[in-house]
Design the sequence.
């Protein structure tokens, strides 16, 4: 019995010893393996892990959007796939080239040349459509990669085309506001490491390992899409009707200086900028220097009144329409004798204006128009804005002063003219123009009094006569509302010297004529057969003023608040909420179900979503909605930052 007990204890000790030895061997093996992995294989394994969690992907963040003053979308970005290769990772050059050639329609020889490159990175094709991108993914070719880029999209096509400008294939702004605000709008380039979380979602990290947002920032303009559309259509009608070469127009809110519309003709569609010439891209409202002609005369009259060299009733001999000064003839369109100052402006006498200018003197006149901003940039964020052409006083002779008094021999831009008339509308106080609501400029020009309130009212009174009496601007009258205005018919300088047979027709209007709230300036280059500003431009300006007052509910007569559209014109604007109320017959935004947006133009679909407080993300290329998320019939998301996606296509 004792012997069996001893044998049993010995067996137990042997088993325990065996287990201890076994565990010791296992732990020794594990520790050895860990040491091997850490000390000898650590670097290689770290690289392998990085492939799962860290990837040096080529990607640029989405470009920021551009909105009008009402939050309507003017420029956005749509996701698109682009194809690139890393030749060093391509194993089967010939086979890969053959597959890609069949999918992309690119010659096999050209692809073999790229695939044989010694470069680490080669673009194959940018901004593919969804169908082609899907085929590339399915092919699963080694060394061939797809990356997400963004195609710039302008949902309203030609609306404010020259003002907005455009961005190139690399996402950099090349013209207009896209260029001026490129640093803000451009998505940051993902040249740093992209980290993936456990679900495979990408996190963008900077060099310090901090998460960053690579999306560009948005900008909000003072432009109103509705009034922009109205202004563009009225301008296009005038240019087409009178066979003009080009035209420009600007609408300003007088009290704030906010530019509500800045139009150019011919129109420009930034979606297809490659098919247009730089001459069409040109924002002539800010870049073209012109001799304004008689629309400049109110500034002369204001200067003369301010310096006491004229009163509204002071008489000047207008020489029966023809006057010789230092061997040069100055002419009027009609034979006027003695006219008081207010009628010199009403009838637009060049001779009377010249005589007022000569009494005023070069120094006084030059300083006055300089204080109004002529000869200086307006400070608007417009690439290439011109400062005009106002020569130093020492370079003016008597003829120069006489001509400058009626707007010849001085060079100005449309935006400068609008800024100058803001001083008249604001009782003699010059204010800056504004084009961007957000972000606000850090340095803003402070208001400055240039002439007295009394002078401003007298000039306004004379400008009301131009329209309401028997002046040159009667075609701009609006029933029930006073209008202050001035016509301009400037003879254009000839390339060989002197003046030729071409004219620049223009009209400036301040409405209402008492305490003006809006300023409208328009000019049309070389109109034919009629070239008078009162005939060519004044009716178009009237149309803009009427629709502006109606839109803001300030027109005495009951009128439609929708844009005036000439036959054949496309409605480009992203309709503001005021106009949308009458444009939502098929969709009640108060409904709790998401409507079916498929088949709609992108502009209309965005209008519906924006009314509900959502800004959608766009995928694909084109202008027609083909798919949506959330689906039609789903409940509206409760969270305002919920994902809303629209897939677009060129197919209608």
Sequence:
């Amino acid at each position: 019995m004792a012997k069996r007990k001893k044998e049993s204890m010995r067996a137990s000790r042997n088993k325990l010893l065996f287990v201890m030895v076994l565990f010791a061997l296992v732990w020794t093996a594990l520790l050895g393996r860990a040491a091997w992995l850490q000390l000898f294989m650590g670097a290689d394994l770290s690289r392998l892990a990085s492939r799962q969690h860290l990837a040096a992907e080529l990607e640029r963040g989405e470009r920021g959007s551009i909105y009008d003053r009402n939050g309507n979308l003017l420029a956005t970005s749509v996701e698109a796939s682009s194809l690139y290769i890393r030749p060093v990772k391509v194993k089967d050059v010939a086979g890969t080239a053959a597959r890609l050639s069949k999918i992309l329609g690119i010659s096999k020889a050209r692809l073999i040349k790229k695939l044989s490159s010694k470069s680490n990175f080669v673009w194959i094709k940018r901004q593919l459509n969804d169908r082609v991108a899907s085929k590339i993914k399915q092919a699963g070719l080694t060394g061939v990669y797809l990356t997400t880029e963004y195609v710039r999209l302008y949902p309203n096509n030609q609306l404010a085309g020259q003002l907005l400008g455009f961005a190139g294939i690399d996402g950099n702004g090349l013209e207009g506001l896209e260029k001026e605000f490129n640093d803000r709008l451009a998505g940051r380039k993902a040249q740093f490491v992209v980290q993936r979380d456990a679900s495979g979602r990408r996190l963008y990290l900077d060099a310090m390992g901090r998460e960053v947002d690579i999306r560009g920032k948005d900008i909000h303009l003072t432009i109103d899409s509705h009034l922009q559309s109205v202004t563009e259509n009225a301008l296009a009608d005038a240019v087409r009707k009178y066979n003009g070469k080009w035209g420009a127009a600007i609408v300003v809110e007088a009290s704030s200086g906010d530019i509500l519309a800045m139009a150019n003709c011919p129109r420009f569609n930034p979606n297809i900028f490659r098919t247009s010439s730089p001459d069409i891209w040109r924002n002539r409202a800010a870049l073209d220097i012109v001799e304004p002609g008689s629309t400049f005369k109110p500034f002369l009259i204001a200067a003369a009144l301010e310096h006491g060299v004229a009163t509204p009733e002071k008489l000047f001999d207008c020489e029966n329409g023809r006057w010789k000064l230092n061997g040069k003839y100055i002419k009027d369109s009609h034979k006027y004798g003695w006219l008081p100052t207010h009628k010199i402006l009403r009838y637009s006498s060049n001779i009377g204006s010249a005589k007022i200018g000569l009494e005023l003197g070069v120094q006084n006149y030059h300083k006055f128009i300089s204080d109004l901003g002529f000869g200086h940039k307006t400070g608007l964020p417009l690439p290439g804005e011109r400062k005009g052409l106002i020569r130093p006083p020492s370079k003016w002779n008597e003829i120069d002063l006489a001509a400058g008094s009626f707007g010849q021999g001085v060079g100005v831009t449309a935006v400068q003219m609008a800024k100058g008339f803001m001083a008249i509308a604001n009782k003699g106080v010059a204010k800056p123009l504004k084009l961007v609501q957000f972000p606000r400029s850090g340095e803003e020009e402070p208001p400055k009094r240039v002439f007295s309130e009394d002078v401003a009212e007298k000039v306004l009174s004379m400008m009301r006569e131009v329209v309401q009496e028997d002046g040159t601007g009667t075609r701009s009258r609006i029933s029930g509302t006073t209008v202050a205005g001035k016509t301009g018919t400037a003879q254009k300088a000839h390339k060989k010297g002197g003046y030729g047979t071409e004219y620049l027709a223009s009209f400036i209007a301040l409405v209402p004529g008492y305490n003006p709230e809006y300023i409208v300036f328009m000019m049309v280059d070389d109109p034919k057969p009629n070239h008078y500003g009162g005939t060519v431009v004044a009716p178009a300006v009237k149309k803009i003023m009427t629709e502006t007052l109606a839109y803001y509910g300030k027109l005495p007569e009951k009128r439609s608040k929708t844009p005036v559209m000439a036959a054949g014109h496309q409605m480009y604007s992203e309709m503001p909420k005021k106009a949308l109320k009458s444009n939502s017959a098929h969709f009640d935004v108060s409904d709790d179900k998401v409507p079916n947006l498929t088949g709609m133009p992108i502009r209309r679909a965005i209008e519906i979503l924006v009314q509900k407080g959502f800004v959608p993300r766009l995928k694909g290329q084109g202008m027609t909605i083909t798919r949506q998320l959330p689906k039609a019939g789903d409940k509206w998301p409760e969270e305002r930052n919920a994902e809303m996606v629209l897939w677009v296509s060129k197919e209608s």
Notes: The chain has a mean pLDDT of 85.
